[in-house]
Amino acid sequence: MRIRISHATTYHYDMPPNGVTQLLRLTPRNHDGQYVVNWRIDLSQDCLLHQHEDAFGNITHSFTADGPFDHLAITVCGEVEMQDTHGFVKGAVERFPPALYLRETDLTLPDAAIVEFSEAARAEAGAGASALSVMHQLLANVHGEIAFDTTPTQTATTAAEAFKLKRGVCQDLTHVFIAAARQLGVPARYIGGHFYRADGVTAQDAGHAWAEVYIEDYGWIGFDPTNAICPTDAHVRIAAGLDYLGASPVRGTRYGGHGETLTVAVNVDQASQQSQSQSQS
Amino acid sequence: MLSRTADNLYWLSRYVERAEYLARILDATQRLSSMPLAYVGTSNEWESAVLTAGCATAFFKIYDEANEENVTDFLAFSTANSSSIRSCFEMARSNARAVRTALTMEMWDQINGTWLELQRYGNGPTSREELSRFLRWVQESSLRFDGSAYRTMLRNDAYWFSRLGVYIERADNTARILDVKYHLLLPDNERVGGPLDYFQWAAILRSVSALTAYHWVYRDSLKPWLVADLLILKEELPRSLASCYEAIVRNLDAISGAYGRQGPAQRQARAVRTRLQNSRMDGIFQRGLHEFISEFITETNSLGGAITEQFLI
Amino acid sequence: MSACFDEMKGHDGGVRPPYDELARWLKEVPPDVLDYRRREAELLFRRIGITFAVYGEADSTERLIPFDVIPRIISGNEWRLLEKGLTQRVKALNMFIKDIYGAREILRAGVIPDDLIFRNPAFRPEMSGQSVPHDIYVHIAGIDIVRVDADTFYVLEDNARTPSGVSYMLENREIMMRLFPELFSRHRIAPVENYPDELLATLKSVAPLTAGSDPNVALLTPGVFNSAYYEHSFLADKLGVELVEGRDLLVKNEIVYMRTTQGLKRVDVIYRRIDDDFIDPLTFRPDSILGLPGLMSAYQAGNVTLANAVGTGIADDKAVYSYMPAVVKFYLDEEPILKNVPTWRCREPEHLAYVLDHLPELVVKEVHGSGGYGMLIGPTASKIAIEQFRAKLKTAPTNFIAQPTLALSTCPTCVEAGVAPRHVDLRPFVLSGSDRTRIVPGGLTRVALKEGSLVVNSSQGGGTKDTWVLDG
Predict the structure, then answer these.
(1) Nearest CB to C260: which of B3, B98, B112?
(2) Which residues in chain B have Cβ-Cβ distances shorter than 8 Å to C258?
(3) Do A275 and A2 meet the contact criterion of CB atoms below 8 Å apart?
(4) Neighboring chain B residues of C247 at a CB cutoff of 8 Å
């Protein structure tokens, strides 16, 4: 399946800033089952984009835009050829051994409730269950325990806070899953990306997120607790990190100015379908 | 030098200068208000002090009435007033602390000593005598700080920025007094021999420590248009608008000389100075004293903005 | 107490040669003169040091760190040994950090267990695979050394992040030279006042290749509210470099600039006294307002040197400390000249068993703890405290290490009752540049002023002394 993605991040300012510095993780890489056909980043301001690779192998771009300007738009678009690998992630850029991904972070620090929750998943999977079965159990449990709700949480919400609320967005479900997996001794990481919805809804107001865990003898396997599935050819992987912060699409700062409003518009569609709909209209 | 360092030096000087100015206003007001009404009229001197200090809005948010107790507390000791003498010294010291290495030991000692002494005054003096002593101490502290800067600083950009702070603040302060009291200086307000305004004029002169200077310059009894002339156009008087702008231009020129380039701040300052040099009091009265002063205050604010824009951020 | 080694009188009470002159002088000098000088020193410190005293709260005079007027003396031979040992240790520390963020050979060789690094909060995954200018990570190291007898020095702790205290070393010497010129003339003492020059030379030597011939160095401070701000401004002044805060800097096209009254000026080397966590909100803590957004991008592009590098904390972690002898051997193939304090790692079952059996004799420390938190000092702890600690150890053994209670050496010190021995340690400062290693002879001697106390921290009644390294 060929997926076409466009992702626009736009800032509007009541009082124009003197400058903006940002660090972007918006560019996918190839691995088995994912091939980037074309990809482009456009900025509404003229400035240099510096490309690097971060320690986790993600492609980053940094830039400084000189103000004043009343808005700043970062638009990425491109096409990715996807194949279903049943959740297995092979051939991706790996810069660390799996042991690193047992590391706790502020956003994924388990509290007593998450510890209990992770133990419950292990028990439910049954005595002597494989790590893989425990992860599947955990996937179902996180999905069942935490309702999808965009209102109560923000980007700085921790796994423990979201777990207490029992509500959150894909970021929160993923954090809880990661915290619990690590607690069970299974290396886990955060994946930021995009998801092509089967129901035909192409306009989304945010990207998607899911987890990957490392299972001995299998390697890295994706788990998407929001949809209670392992990633398919509908999951386009953009960046990996220990948590949201490490895989965050945009991190930035502003010099001067105020009254900033942020809008994000994501469109994920099948490349072929989109051209059809264009010809129909 | 770092923009922030220059900014701290500039504001350090401004706050010390402002503290001194507030002390002068309080001092002059206290004198006026202690006179029999027959000599000074029925106007509320304390309200006028708050206006001259430029913080009437903040004051009336807290108090209903401007009287000696409220105004003294607000202008001298209040922590709620970000421009009280106490707040000025607090901010002067915190600016000094941030640029400790750009100050000479003597300057630091002065400002830090002042700050430590200020802590001893607590919530303020309890008697008029004590208040007088306090106000004198504030003025002396400012003189000592100014003297230590003048005597010990290297003549480089650090010195010039700190001087700029002094003169911008001073120009603004003198202009504010004129703004509040201008009506007393209008020619048609003169009532020859009447004592009523005499003490008001004396108070104005006192608040810029120019009472004696007046007599040396004019060798005449107090005349309102001469008071205005002295405060606005006489470069000999250190607190006159003309003198402040002479110094502002001189220090900005020193900076542009050292940096090898000029900018909007230099151009704006020169324009104002040229106008002051080319003006005469009768012309100013004709065009309107109040308009002249209002315009001057706006221009000085805008020059402050230009200096900040060009050097301090 | 008598079991301790006294640096003046040794174990047997005779005077050791480096202290000959001082001992004579102490005998000659009338007690009231010593007392007078002591008060004078305090006054001088208040005057010179008034700057740091007033940075504290309203009753700031309390915040002076006590200064002891009797110097601590180290012979030329002793110093040469220390110098060799320090150079070796810091060289190994630098190689270790480069390896940990690079090829990770020491992990593959199994010398250090993976999880000790990967799960360590002081390890910065973000630094992995990044190179730093000239491959130097720890430009300024403060190595805490204790002594137990005439020949044995132990490293108690490596400080590889942003070690402080060097301003005291310099001020102490200044005060001593003013107060006791005659005592100085009786000795030949190696100077320390060139430290700022050596530091500046070190910092300039590690400038990135893209810098000009005269690199611009700046000292980055968290600001006036930081407890070490005095030291930051003191050093910036002595170095003749700008003391900057995050808001004075900006990154443009991966180059760091400072905002000056003449416009933007490029910065090549940042001597930073801000912790990793706060240094760049785009990479580390997003809520930090102290750092410089985009700094890590400039760093990664090789356009700026950070001294010390980001992520050096992995080398001074207490758990990693216990592996230092093996680290020295692994990278240098040499025996460590300076010993480690014997350390039991409770993560290893045999060690844990020993520790549990000997709790009343041991000092047990939390691996990531600092400031004496989560610490058990066996010999002075109550039975209940020991039993409580035993339970903690059993539940989370990986969090702890244990060491024997050391009999730190003592030095003659002015106290209420006259001159008496008090326990001391030593923090020399090791500078690593691209050209060479520089160590100013001596360092900061800290002294526990309370009788019998082994705690030299200023927060717990510790003071400082001038440290004299004899020439020859």
Answers:
(1) B3
(2) 2
(3) no
(4) 4
A62: contact with C, CB 8 A cutoff: yes
Instruction: Assess contact for A254 and A122: CB atoms under 8 A.
Output: no
Give residue A280's pLDDT. Answer: 41
Report angle CA C249, C253, C254 to the nearest 5 degrees: 65
**A66-70, A184-188, B190-194, C214-218: range with lowest mean pLDDT:** B190-194
- pLDDT value of position C201: 96
ipTM of model: 0.90
Beta bridge pairs of residue A264 = A9
State phi, psi for C71 to the nearest 5 degrees: -70, 160
C-alpha A11/C-alpha A21 separation (Å) is 13
Half-sphere exposure of C329 (CA within 13 A, CB side): 10
What is the average per-residue pLDDT within A195-204?
Answer: 89
Is B169:B13 a contact under the CB 8 Å cutoff?
yes
CB contact under 8 A, C259 and B4: yes
Site of tokens 């407890």: C227
Q: Which segment, A235-244, B33-42, B48-57, is predicted with the most confidence on average?
A: A235-244
If one counts every other C-beta atom within 10 angstroms of the C-beta of residue A42, the result is 11
Q: Among candidates A49, A74, A73, A68, which has minimal Cα distance to C253?
A: A49
* Among B163, B137, B161, B147, CA closest to B22: B137
pLDDT for A171-199, tens place per residue? 999 999 999 999 999 999 999 999 999 88
Give the number of other CB atoms < 10 A from CB of residue A259: 9
Provide, as residue numbers in chain B, all residues whose Cβ is less than 8 Å from the Cβ of C56. Answer: none
Q: H or E segment at B166?
A: helix B157-185
Mean pLDDT of the region A88-105: 95
Interface-testing mutation among B3, B12, B94, B115, with chain C (most C C-beta atoms within 10 A): B3
Q: Is the dihedral of CA A151, A157, A162, A168 positive or negative?
A: positive
The answer, yes or no, to whether residue C55 has pLDDT greater than 70, is no
Per DSSP bridges, beta strands A167-168 and A147-148 are: parallel
pLDDT at A50: 93
Are the Cβ atoms of C294 and A23 closer than 8 angstroms? yes
Residue among C100, C119, C299 with most chain A CBs within 10 A, to mutate: C119
SS3 B306: helix
Report the pLDDT value the prediction gives residue C370, as an integer from 0 to 100: 54
Residues 414-453, chain C, touching B (beta carbon < 8 A): none
DSSP H stretches of helix in B34-101 = 37-40, 45-52, 56-62, 68-72, 85-98
Q: Does C308 touch chain B (CB under 8 A)?
A: no
Q: Residue B103's closest chain C neighbor by CA? A: C237
State pLDDT tens for residues B116-145: 889 888 777 778 888 889 999 999 999 999
Distance of residue C58 Cα from the nearest chain B Cα, in angstroms: 8
- Per the prediction, chain C carries an average pLDDT of 90
β-pair partners for C469: C74
Residue of A187, A194, A137 lying closest to A170 (CA atoms): A194
Cα distance between residue C410 and residue C446, in whole Å: 11
